[in-house]
Amino acid sequence: MHKEYVDKYYLTEVDTFDHSIYCHHAVMGEHHVTEHYHKKGQFLYTEGGVVFLKTPEKSYFLPARHYIWIPAGVKHSIHPSGPQVVMRNLYFPPFETDTAFFEKINIYPVSDLLNELIMFTNRWNGNIFPEEEPKFSIAKAFKLILPEISPAELPLALPYPKNDKLKQIVNYLEQNISENISFKSLAEHFDISERTLARLFQKELNMSYIQYFTILRMLTSLKLLLDEKLSVNEVALRVGYNSLPTFSNTFNKVIGVRPSEYVKNRNLLL
């Protein structure tokens, strides 16, 4: 019954009225939302676990205290860590004031101000029409303020390789994330020249091996911190860092906050 309700909401109700803003807060109740798209842009914030969002091109990792903006027309599926995850969604029609910000799918940290605004929207559910004032103007302002309070997009996404050899390599890295795998040893393991391997990463994934492996490790770290409740020391070792300061600095550079701060706020975020 719940599945029918979720299906009805995200596949039919969101786009029923072109000019409305649609708001939906609910416990997932299921382990994934199948691939679909909307005519409206989507603001998605989650509580109670970790969410992977997959498009045909990339896999995005949405941790606590972050939101993802999904432009209109982008096919995506949603995969939460469990059915207890709460999804807070706002779907917006295009406005004349829209900037390039709304044309890109990206993940951004949630400030205290934005968190207050998200909680304010909890009182809404369903369509908000232009004639419903001041509700519509407040909801519209929510969208308009996003570029101003979301200055730092985070690289919490990894592209999918299409090349069969690179698929094997990426799978190998995922399975051996605790190992310090040098570029040279990786090339030797897969019987490929370093030059060819470097070219493969840039062509297929648009990043270097070091960039890819670092982001993979940091996304895995987030999952371990949030889902498995491991300590920062345990997580650092699990993803191949013997030096806690190096791990902390790298985590901060990629995620935007130090792991110790993330753990301190963990119970508040989930």
Secondary structure elements and pairings:
Elements: H1 2-13, E1 21-27, E2 33-36, E3 41-47, E4 51-54, E5 58-62, E6 66-70, E7 76-80, E8 86-92, E9 106-109, H2 112-120, E10 126-128, H3 135-149, E11 157-159, H4 164-175, H5 183-189, H6 194-205, H7 209-227, H8 232-238, H9 244-255, H10 259-264, H11 266-269
Helix pairs in contact: 7-9
Notes on the structure:
- The chain is α+β, with helices and mostly antiparallel strands and 270 residues long.
- The protein is built from 11 helices and 11 strands.
- It has helices at residues 2-13, 112-120, 135-149, 164-175, 183-189, 194-205, 209-227, 232-238, 244-255, 259-264, 266-269, and strands at 21-27, 33-36, 41-47, 51-54, 58-62, 66-70, 76-80, 86-92, 106-109, 126-128, 157-159.
- The protein has a 6-stranded antiparallel β-sheet, covered by helices on one side.
- Helix 7 packs across helix 9 (244-255).
- The chain is globular, with a radius of gyration of 20 Å.
Compute the CA-based radius of gyration: 20 Å
Proportion of helical residues: 40-55%
Report the principal-axis shape. globular
Poorly predicted parts: 1-7
Q: What is the count of β-strands? A: 11
The percent range for strand residues is 15-25%
What's the tally of helices? 11
**Topology order in helix (H) and strand (E) letters:** HEEEEEEEEEHEHEHHHHHHHH
Biggest sheet record: 6 strands, antiparallel
Mean pLDDT across every amino acid position: 86
Going across the biggest sheet, name each strand in turn: 9-6-3-8-1-10
Question: What structural category arises from helix and sheet content?
Answer: alpha+beta
- Give the CA-CA distance, first to last residue: 26 Å
